[in-house]
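User: Can you write out an input/output pair for a complex, sequences first and structure second?

Assistant: Here is one pair. Inputs:
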Amino acid sequence: MLSAILSMAALAAAFGVALGYVSVRFKVEGDPLVDQIDAVLPQTQCGQCSFPGCRPYAQAIADGEAEINQCPPGGEAGVMALADLLGRDPLPLNPENGVAKEVKTVAVIDEDVCIGCTKCIQACPIDAILGAAKQMHTVIADECTGCDLCVEPCPVDCIDMVPIEDTTQTWKWPFPEADATEKAA
Amino acid sequence: MAVQNEILRQIWISSAILAAFAVAGSALLGVTEGSTREQIAANEQAYLIKSLNQVLPPSQFDNDLLSDSIEIQDTDALGTEAPVTVYRARKQGQAVAALFTVVAPDGYSGNIRLLVGVNFNGSLAGVRAVSHRETPGLGDAIEVSRSDWILGFAGRALGQPPVERWRVKKDGGDFDQFTGATITPRAVLKAVKKALIYFAAHRDDLFATSAKDPQESDNG
Amino acid sequence: MTDYLFILIGTVLVNNFVLVQFLGLCPFMGVSKKRETAMGMALATTFVLTLSSVCSYLVNEYILAPLGVEYLRTISFILVIAGVVQLTEMIVHKASPLLYEVLGIYLPLITTNCAVLGVALLNVREQNSFLESAVYGFGAAVGFSLVMILFSAMRERIAVADVPAAFQGAPIGLITAGLMSLAFMGFAGLV
Amino acid sequence: MASYSDIARDGLWKNNPGFVQLLGLCPLLAVSNSLVNALGLGLATIFVLVTSNVIISAIRNWVQPQVRIPVFVMVIAATVTAIELIMQAELYELYKVLGIFIPLITTNCIIMGRAEAFAAKNDLPKALADGLAQGLGFSFALVLLGAMREVLGQGTLLRDAHLLFGEQARDWTITLVHNYDGFLLAVLPPGAFLGLGLLIALKNVIDRRLAQPKAQPISTTDTAESTA
Amino acid sequence: MARLSSPHLPVQASVSVVMRRVVIALIPGIAVMTFFFGVGVLLNIGIAAVTALLAESIMLKLRGRELGRFLSDWTAVVTAVLLAIGLPPLAPWWLPAMGAFFALVFGKHLYGGMGYNPFNPAMIGYVVLLIAFPTQMTLWPTPLGVGDGVASPLAVLTYAIGNDLAAFGGLDAMTGATPLDHVKTQLSLSQTVAEAQGGNMFGLFAGQGWEWLNLAFLAGGLWLLTNRTIRWQIPVSVLGSLAIISTLFWLGDSDRFASPLFHLTSGAAIVGAFFIATDPVTASTTPRGRLYYGAGIGVLTYIIRNWGGYPDAIAFAVLLMNMAAPTIDEYTQPRVYGHEGRKD
Amino acid sequence: MSAAAGMVTGAKVWKFPGGLKLNGHKTLSATSAIEDAPIPAYLILPLAQHIGAAAKPVVEVGDQVYKGQTIAAPDGFVSTPIHASSSGKVVAIEERPVAHPSGLSAMCIVIETDGLDTPLSTPELEAHPDYSELDPSHLRNLVRQAGVVGLGGAAFPSFIKLNPGPDAQVDALILNGAECEPYITCDQVLMREQADDIARGAQLIMHAVQATTCLIGVEDNKSESIAALNKAIDALDDRRIKVVVVPTRYPQGGEKQLVQALTGREVPSEGLPLDIGIVCHNVGTAATVWRAVTRAEPLISRVMTVTGGAIKQPRNFNVRIGTPVSELLALSGGTQGTPARLVMGGPMMGFALTSDAVPVVKATNCILATTEAETAPVEDAMPCIRCGECAEVCPAGLLPQQLYWHSRARDLDRAQEYKLFDCIECGCCAQVCPSHIPLVQFYRFAKTEIWEAERDKRKSNHARERHEFRQDRLDREEAEKKARLAAKKAALKKDTSAANPVAEAIARAKARKAETASGQPADPVADMIAQAKAKADGNKKIPEKPASTENSSSTDDPVAAAIARAKAKADQKKTDSAAPSDDPVAAAIARAKAKAAEKSDEKSDDPVAAAIAKAKARKAEQQSAPEEKPTADDDPVAAAIARAKAAAAAKKDGD
Ligand SMILES: Cc1cc2nc3c(=O)[nH]c(=O)nc-3n(C[C@H](O)[C@H](O)[C@H](O)COP(=O)(O)O)c2cc1C
Ligand SMILES: Cc1cc2nc3c(=O)[nH]c(=O)nc-3n(C[C@H](O)[C@H](O)[C@H](O)COP(=O)(O)O)c2cc1C
Ligand SMILES: Cc1cc2nc3c(=O)[nH]c(=O)nc-3n(C[C@H](O)[C@H](O)[C@H](O)COP(=O)(O)O)c2cc1C
Ligand SMILES: Cc1cc2nc3c(=O)[nH]c(=O)nc-3n(C[C@H](O)[C@H](O)[C@H](O)CO)c2cc1C
Ligand code: SF4
Ligand code: SF4
Ligand code: SF4
Ligand code: SF4
Ligand code: FES
């Protein structure tokens, strides 16, 4: 009995010593995971994930504080990519965070209505709006990620999100319809 | 400096916690073990006896089988190089039967271990398959739970039927084979027959009250 | 020599840990959806299984048996395994981020893989010697890795098959494992 | 956090360890070749799960991260060994039949899984409820599979009940099909995998039916989309 | 619009043509088999085919797939025939039925049907039967020229339906071990190969009847090769590896190891190499991979035949290599135009 | 690739892997001579007819244009001009349906022809009958100005291929006269009728690329063309040029396959023929180049085939670029019923047209109108049975079935691992697939998906950079603001703390508590911030619209804070008149604090963190100094100094 207790205690203590030592000696700083997650996120910086931008969301995922299904701009494909990266099971997008846009959009400022208040400029997370105070503003369409953040601050409602249309350059071959195998009789 | 301190601190904490749980755990187990030890030992014995009882019902003997045993060795007759324990059943001091395991090495797939009980008069008290790897559904009919075939050995002896008819029917003997499986019964028969022959040759040594040197008994 | 060969064949094929002995099934089912992860898991398991097989032999032989406290087998084995795994993980994490990338995330999972404790306990039951224990552990790991990797490649195919909805995911995975186990019955009687 | 009814529903059905989480597969498949074996291991697992959940919940706040796993496994291992010793003392034959899978409860993934995922984060009563629910859920899966395999493989139920319930249960065996040759596949290893696969598929079908109460055509599959 | 893209020309080849060719190629073998083993062969094929088509229809219906197209692709028939010719030609009716059911349901439709199954359905059916009903599966009727000779149609039918042969002198009288089984068991009783092959079970160079049977299947297989329904890699590597390994052991100890000719022609090696291992769906698909795949089957067959628990092992070997096929494919990708070296 | 080192002689023909023997159907259209198609009423000239950037219009609606006049100029290096193919008036510059598999519209210049076909009075180009005087770079420029693109299929601006660069060594020019696709015969008749132009074009290109050999690869089913070419070469007496007869085997005319067949060399993946010393042009391109240089003829017309079972009189036309397809169908006697499919290009590589209003472009070599019997059914695919037939015929040595499985599963990474981009989309695989799977469409689908993903990735990386840039800018601004503030406060505090140490201690304690609550170590800079935090906290209690609050209450991020602030502003004003959110100082501090918290673990290039670090160092220094008070924290003077230093450092780092 005593020998049992003593031997176990000694064994345990030995591991305790080793673990304690190693836990300090081999402490790992930094977390490349956040970078990897951030690289997968669409960088729309729209905040729909309920975090202020993509990187904070990436951090939250890495810390296990957020699910992987909170980014609507990334869509199902984004969730799959995250699931892949993190070795988790894919989840359907969380509707609380919004729905994935059917089509991509860009912001367009109605330049006749714009009063040059700069509110949209402050809101745009990627500085995609040009203009100075009291002058009309324009969106650099190529930069705009379609995050919608500039729409609300505009006091005169002059910003519209318009769909980006396919061109022969961006057109994609459609997925060939389901094979006959997968079709109902 | 700081790192050193930190290491010491962590070492101290980790080992203390782990040791504490180890102590608690092993203490708990120590107590449990202490309180169950005897019961377990008794169970082990009972288990063994129960398996022996399959071939020799308890009513037929009154001695303590487990303490009345000797070891023998005969690779040829017993099918194994390892020493084999022989339990000797006696009633009122009279030898009743010997129980031991033999191995049939030529089963369809590997060894078949058999528990053989031989009455003092040379007839079989019973045979059971202890372990085997015969094909499920074919060769495993030697298990009692699968068929009664093995029960048919009880009461048989070397002359009953005559030695040359200790074969499966297909080979011109008296024993049934299984449909589609002749190898297994053949192997079992052969092993049992050998055991009987061994018994006949060594009966007195086997029942000698003091355990004899197996080698000696072998030569005898 | 042939003894060791038989142990190897026995553990890898005839009594495959996963398909015949039913050990280590959770990671087998859980981490086999992609070939890369399956390989990582296989590697990590091979390492831990061999190591723990050896360590538990030592613990059993030099601590438990001399003191006559065999009833502490489970608790001491598991302590050794958990400790070794965690030490390995922490050291690998720091020392070789590359290796950690490959093995790291699987190591903690392995602690609770019953193949690891299973191999330790079976070693005792089979009364294997030191070297036999090592071969036994290694063979078990190779068997595990083999079926794990084959299984993961099959699952990648099955993932894109037109599997009936009710069977998608785990059910078809289990059925595939069942059919693999069926195929492995062909090795019965080899050793 | 989770309410008790959630905990119960999770453990028994929605997040059943055997059917959904796919944890504890080894004992689930290995000892489900008969109903009695399944029941025996199920009971042992419940006991361990409840005990370990309770202890871990109680100690959760003063265990360092680097020793968390060793401490947890030690707690579990101690519990299991205690059970093992008690079983040896009280149900020796069943212990013999279940063999290595009793000590292996230690590494049954559910136990550690619940310790990490639930007990280490919740208070004591909840942890107890969770242990019970998950244990019952696991035993449910185990017993179902055991019954299925026993019926298919041997045509009986409750064979060898005396191992668990003592001598008076020796003749509890229910023979469903007389002179049944036995569909051997069911009791062999492949049968375990196939059986569990079929049971989970069945659960999926039931879940789908429950989800859309409107009577659906016999089709158990969804059509066009799937992987397309 | 499903097909938008080029090419726009109609395609000549089709799945059902391929499958029909396989059935046609099996006919000579089936004919010889019936001659030697009786009408039980045809009965098995019939029962298996009907069950297979039935099971296929039910599964297609349950899964909501087009019935007509898939029933007419002939794959279920190929599966049924290949399963049936592996069964003893004297069997209760439920044996082929059960086998075909398992083949089609577990081997094929749970995976999504034609084209998606990772395991050879016929071999799944066969192995399930072998493991679940070993008694029925190991009782082969004696062929023409051995023992009582070929079972009469009446006997076959009585046994198939009533599972009873008392009227015909009992099952044991009409059945015996196959040549492979016989040699295996005799060898295990420490006889030499020559002794084991001494009986009248053995014909010119292999089992009586079996030799002709295998020649007929060989003819069908060669026909498939010439019309490019199958490629050479798998048959050649299966038979080649089996021949090589059996030659090596035979040269080493011809008392304990049977000759390569015996191995090639006494069991299912020929059918296996040309018809079973070549199942495109479950085999390896890269040219180099097919060589490895076939070699694996040959070697595993030999190992299990000699040291394992089963007298013949084509089915197990095929299933085991089916397991490995996806992995093999992954590591045997051919060199792509414009890339250096192979990707190994 | 041992052959790469050897000489290119054309003496041996290699075999490329895979490939198919197809029924050519060439006699349909090859028997008659090339016919000039009349001027259509309208010419529709897409701006993007070539690989590379679309041309930019240089005319306006209403302008009169003349034949050969440049109406659109190249935009960038990989681009070519577009010329009016007849005279008339520009009536529109707008989106019109163009020849593209999508059936989408694209920018076109539409010319209403006047039927006069008046050429420019002074041609834009100068004719150089004796080009051997010209140095190669001048030559290339001429070819560029003539708008010449490859006529073999890809419509790659030809001048680039005439410009091998200073280091490149060209062993051989290969002219592609294989024309392996069924039905098409435009190269065949061109070689028959204009062999001389081709041969001279070959000489010209050899001069331009400094090649010593020219091999013209022609399939063995075009004996007349071979004879004509040999005759023309004999006439020129140029031993460097050689016609090599190659077997008729699809896709013999694929650039990579032809290069392999003629030289035994393989074009490296993702490489160019030039990498192995080869330049490859279509035979028609050669003739066009020659005419552009020596006769100053820009590319305004080309020879093309109109054929197929549904065409009444299949033949070859010399067609003005921009002619609508409908006109050509009418010219060939119309169609027999509605064609089952109208294809631009050949049956193996071409794409189905959704409308016959689209114009012929520079790349158009064939219009194919098929009958039902000649057309693959739209929908009869079965699952892949992995028969491997496709792999047998793939000329690229790919595993088409694996590409298919991965594309179908949308596993684009795996598809790329299986070398999706080495697929030349030749269609051989689909042509032999017993399951009739539209394999090529799967590959095209996967490729366009990958391209889109790459576009998205580029865009998102760009967005990340811009976002980070913005963050840095905001940080800098905050740091500067804060530094100013800190200095001011410190000065203030110096007075008050002396007077009231208790209040100061309390404030500090509060600050630290706030800090530790957010997991950050207390430090002097944070001290300051936290003191203002009580105020800033007021912000957070203000009721806000749930829809717009996600960011405001939980956030640590300045952008989000700004956004939230903007959103909540109206409400705040109404509900809490004393709301300090309008207070720029408090808001700034809140943001700075947030920033500091966020950045505290990224020590490298963050000015705030740098400042903190410096302040801390300072503190440690003071701690160890014996004559100091117990902690530097307690010393307002030291703290102030630290802060000031930090501020200075922050400013410095920020700049
Ligand atoms: C897969 C398989 C497993 C077999 N297993 C056994 C077995 O376990 N025991 C046995 O006696 N025969 C077994 N046999 C049958 C033997 O191979 C052999 O056919 C039979 O024993 C000889 O019987 P006979 O003399 O009645 O023909 C098996 C046969 C096969 C094909
Ligand atoms: C996107 C692209 C870029 C190319 N870049 C070059 C180049 O830089 N230099 C060159 O000589 N050819 C270049 N080529 C031309 C190719 O080498 C080849 O001749 C041309 O694509 C025609 O081939 P095809 O019709 O077989 O597709 C390029 C082609 C493509 C499609
Ligand atoms: C499958 C395939 C077949 C082709 N067949 C021909 C052909 O028959 N004739 C031809 O000139 N170009 C053919 N091409 C295009 C050539 O690859 C290559 O683009 C052309 O010869 C380059 O010359 P160009 O730039 O002058 O067009 C084919 C391309 C592919 C991918
Ligand atoms: C050459 C060839 C061999 C085949 N062999 C088999 C076979 O061994 N077993 C089988 O079930 N089906 C076989 N089939 C049919 C078919 O491929 C098979 O049922 C598929 O596995 C069904 O998805 C074969 C088909 C061909 C073309
Ligand atoms: S929802 Fe997605 S895109 Fe928007 S900020 Fe969050 S991670 Fe970025
Ligand atoms: S312009 Fe508007 S929609 Fe576009 S990125 Fe900026 S804030 Fe978002
Ligand atoms: S030819 Fe068609 S069916 Fe055959 S492997 Fe290729 S894609 Fe699959
Ligand atoms: S289309 Fe692509 S994959 Fe198919 S044969 Fe041609 S090159 Fe190979
Ligand atoms: S129970 Fe999970 S691995 Fe065995």
